[in-house]
Amino acid sequence: MVENDFFVLLAMLLYFIVVLTIGFVYAKRSNSSASEYFIGGRGVGPWLTALSAEASDMSGWLLMGLPGVAYFTGASDALWTGLGLAIGTYLNWKFVAKRLRLYSERTDSITLPDFYSKRFGDRKNIISTVAAIIIVLFFSVYVGSCFVTVGKLFATLFGLDYATMMILGAIIVFLYTLVGGYLSVVVTDFVQGMLMFFALAVVVVGSIAWAGGIDNTVAFMQAIPGFLSGSQIAVPAFDETGRQLVADGSPVFGPPAEYGFVTMISMLAWGLGYFGMPQVLVRFMSIRDAEEVRKSRIIATTWVVISMASAVIIGLVSRVILPTYFGTQAEAENAFIVLAQMMLPSFICGVVVSGIFAASMSSSSSYLLIASSSVAENMFRGVFKRDANDRQVLIVARFTLIVVFLFGILVAYDENSSIFSVVSYAWAGLGASFGPLTLTCLYWRRTTMQGALSGMVAGAVSVLVWHNLVKPLGGVFGIYELLPAFVIALAVNVAVSLLTKPPTGEVQKQFDTYMESGKAE
Questions:
Q1: The model's pTM
Q2: 20-34, 233-247, 290-304, 311-325: which has the minimum mean pLDDT?
Q3: DSSP, residue by residue, 246-309
Q4: Among 27-36, 297-306, 434-443, which is the least confidently predicted range?
Q5: Which stretches within 271-416 are classed as H helix?
Q6: Are the CB atoms for 108 and 117 separated by under 8 Å?
């Protein structure tokens, strides 16, 4: 516990007030139409677009999951995962952002599933309905991971009950998403992105100084077999309860394991997920002007590289400062919080750890909003009640918010859940389902509706099958499920498209017009 919990609570309370105020400020504008509620009327500037995309994407995983992995097994997993995500961030902004902004506007699409259906002239909205189901399925898991972060944060800070604190934090997220819509989410994401960046910078500098400087820190880590190696991974020794052994006040490690080529590729494959992340892709659709994408790309990539590098360093240095404090990887995900408590005055600690809550709020609010928009716009108005007005759509969207919110709480109820593991599963599901589809939609004229639908379903099913049945076999099959599922989805999309009739002349003309506009590159 910190010396003065009052000042920690005060700082966090002030932050909550700011966030909820933003939600209420944008409530009137957001409720003026479905377009405003779901996509901000396509009027979001480059700074807001860039930081909201990355803050919503990284979530509590950046401040808790990634440092936890680095603390427990050393640099390899965190390093290769971070590298894959940095590359994926840049490539997504480079090859998808501008094209999606132009094409979605041309098709008058305000949600990602809506774009997929209109891209192929799917008047029955079959593609958008299936896409909406996949989004709700995997985003419910994603929302749960964010609520896990919230619960661990408050339980670690104040020694309070995990379940109670998790539910309280979840309710705050739900309220400001329910009231404010997309614009409230984007603006608070911008604030939260800045706060996350500040929190990482403060803790990474302070932790290195606390550990006795760079030389002492590196010397300690080098003494742990494989801890700093990019081609090996540290292997903690466990007791019969599954906790790391401690001998003479030091953590016990076995001989390092080789970090082979397959494992490296597996971690780099995280970057493929970006091409199918709805919470990022919707930011591309909402940017004010396609010509501002380049500026957003520079801002976003810079933020991601610095933030992830800082998170990995914090995890590694935590092992020096707190060598035996955490006995499991799930516990090690609290390293950032504990360091902030140790090093900082109470009020500043409250501001810094608000960055964790900020990350969780920015992500879970995006997931809740996208899931609700997919059901309301693409299933309710797209299939069941085509003449529904905006008011009816917003009512359905908010009802969906409640359902996903409750399911997320159910997923998060186990406090021993690993944020890193939960996020990796949902990331794979969304990336494999929508990544190949997004790329073929934007780049391949010959893609058919049947190919798009088959590939999307193949991606989702492949992730479920590989994760639960194939991956446990180990060896080469132990690769991260996103990579094989992405390849399978792309192959199915291409094969089925070539085996079915070409798209209609209207669909092909729309694609040609979009490509020939001279703005798509």
A1: 0.85
A2: 20-34
A3: EETTEE-EEEEEE--HHHHHHHHGGGGGGGG-HHHHHHHHHBS-GGGHHHHHHHHHHHHHHHHH
A4: 27-36
A5: 278-286, 293-321, 329-332, 335-343, 346-373, 390-412
A6: no
Of 110, 500, 475, nearest to 285 by C-alpha is 110
Distance of alpha carbon 209 from alpha carbon 231, whole angstroms: 28
DSSP category for residue 328: S
Over residues 170-217, the pLDDT tens digits come to 787 777 666 655 666 777 778 878 888 888 888 999 999 998 888 989
* 67 contacts: CB under 8 Å, gap ≥ 6: 78, 311, 312, 314, 315, 318, 332, 333, 335, 336
Residue 360 CA to residue 365 CA, distance in Å, equals: 8
> Which of 96, 45, 466 has its CA nearest to residue 273?
96
Q: Please give the Cα distance from 184 to 515 (Å, whole number).
A: 33
DSSP state, residue 241: T
Q: Give yes or no for residue 73 having a pLDDT over 90.
A: yes
Nearest in space to 487 (alpha carbons), one of 519, 462, 450: 462
Distance CA 500, CA 455 (A): 13
The answer for residues whose C-beta is within 8 angstroms of residue 135's C-beta and 6 or more apart is: 112, 113, 278, 370, 371, 374, 430
Evaluate whether 363 touches 54 at the Cβ level (below 8 Å).
Answer: no
Q: How far is CA 264 from CA 72, 230, 482, 483, in A?
A: 18, 9, 13, 12
| Residues comprising the chain, all counted | 521
What's the pLDDT tens digit per position in 4-15? 678 888 888 888
> Which residues are CB-contacts of 348 (< 8 A; sequence separation ≥ 6)?
11, 202
Burial 27-50 (b: 16+ CB within 10 A, else e): bebbbeebbbbbbbbbebebbbbb
Answer whether 138's CB lies under 8 Å from 426's CB: yes
CB count within 10 Å of CB 201 equals 14
User: Which stretch, 240-254, 402-416, 486-500, has highest mean pLDDT?
Assistant: 486-500
Return the residue matching tokens 């997220």.
Answer: 173
Distance CA 489, CA 135 (A): 16
What is the rounded CA–CA span in Å between residue 265 and residue 247?
35
Q: Give backbone dihedrals phi and psi of 211, rounded to 5 degrees, phi first.
A: -75, -5
